[in-house]
Amino acid sequence: MNEKLKGKFLVLDGPDGCGKSTQTRMLSQWIAEQGVDVVSYRDPGTTLIGEKIRDILLDTAHEGMGDNVEVLLYMAARAQLYKEHIGPDLAAGKCVLMDRWLSSTCAYQGWAGGFGIEKVIKIATDSLERVWPDVTVILDVDLATAAKRMQRDLDRMEQKGDAYHAKVREGFLKLPEIEPTVKVADATRSVDQVRTDVLKIVQDLSCRT
Ligand code: TMP
Predict the structure, then answer these.
(1) Whole-model pTM?
(2) Residue 37, number of CB atoms within 10 A of its CB
């Protein structure tokens, strides 16, 4: 088990309010308990350049930003993160656990924003060193449950409204048909129940490879 998690690239993703930050923390702790060197990063962000791009993307003053501009900015932040951290960490045999990745661009910009999931994947293929991780776990949650978990000021993406966010969820749920390494967990349930499902998906991966 320990050996199999080394050098693995894992992603937790899902709609805003799905609980992925809590699950990322718990999964990271579990991987460390297996004796594996694990690092965890957020996308967009983490690097100096990525955090600046994140600020531009989430600033509520930038309400006129086009979906194509969002795609390019999210992709740029991700490319920098791979260059500075993910690539070297994987090469050193660490397990890399991400809070969001390409699956978000597919669901938000590709599907909800109407840019096109296939076009997003094409841009990723042309610009990223690594397109898909070993596994992406989508924490699936309905709008009402998500809203209850987001009692705070909303950023520019979160302010896009219910119709947009319903499509974001739809976009995430399309991904397993397009990319077999994408799995879905029901995140409407308790933190512990979701944790059990996430661990099962990660354990299945480490048994297979
Ligand atoms: P976070 O708050 O979960 O870190 O994500 C920042 C926001 O950016 C969140 O509303 C989801 C959105 N997002 C996209 O629209 N496309 C992307 O590719 C990524 C990574 C995030």
Answers:
(1) 0.96
(2) 14
